[in-house]
Design goal:
143 residues; mainly alpha; Four Helix Bundle (Hemerythrin (Met), subunit A)
Amino acid sequence: MTANVMSDDVERYKAAGFDDYIGKPFELQQFVDTVARCLGDKQTLALTPESLQDNAAETDLKAMLKQRFPDYLQSIESSWREMNLGLLKHEVHQLKGAALLFEFPVIGDVCRDIEAGLVPRDGQINIAAIAPKVEALLALLQD
């Protein structure tokens, strides 16, 4: 499982002996299909998205992520205040993945917007353009 799914990356994985890959973020059905394809005739599968979902475990994981929101808030707020854009990008990227995986889509979408804004355009990052998005993210994490 990887976030690196450019064609060069995938070719490198397969050359190294990987049977397949799953790019993040992924859908549960995609995961099931990929595992089934890799196992092939080696095993009879009773694998479905429904058989993998344990609502209690998912609820626990969502709660654990939500408990980490104050840590993300502190780290993102600090990196923003200090203009440590590398750390900001790292923290926002981590939060985006977790938020989208555990169904906090508004937080995930704001993180995605911030990440996009942190990509230099003509060698510059437009701080004024991402400032309201960072402030919105901080407000979401406080709630």
